[in-house]
Amino acid sequence: MDWLEDELKNALSRKEPGEGFDERVLAAARRRNVVAMPRRWMAAAAAVIVLAGAGEAYRWHRGQEAKEQVMLAMRITGHKLNLVQARIAGERQ
Predict the structure, then answer these.
(1) Which end of the chain is more exposed for a tag (fewer CB within 10 A), N or C?
(2) How distant is the alpha carbon of residue 78 from its chain centre?
(3) Rounded to an integer, what distance in angstroms lies between the CA atom of residue 64 and that of residue 69?
(4) Chunked in runs of 10, what are the mean pLDDT values of the chain (93 residues)?
């Protein structure tokens, strides 16, 4: 065999873990869960707040569009009524 293959075989061979390995892994897992859980909740809460804010902004935007459409309709109606009143006033004279 080539020396590189020997080195790889040696590096990738199974080795027994050191003393206290399982306790260290469990302790690290407990620390991670204690810290990670509030971060997850904070991220979820932030996402909910962003979505709620975006929804409210969209509703406000749609309200503004509706208001502009109503105002345009009122201006058109007013203009048409003025034309009708002018025609009626012209026929009376």
Answers:
(1) C
(2) 43
(3) 9
(4) 81 83 84 69 92 95 97 97 92 77
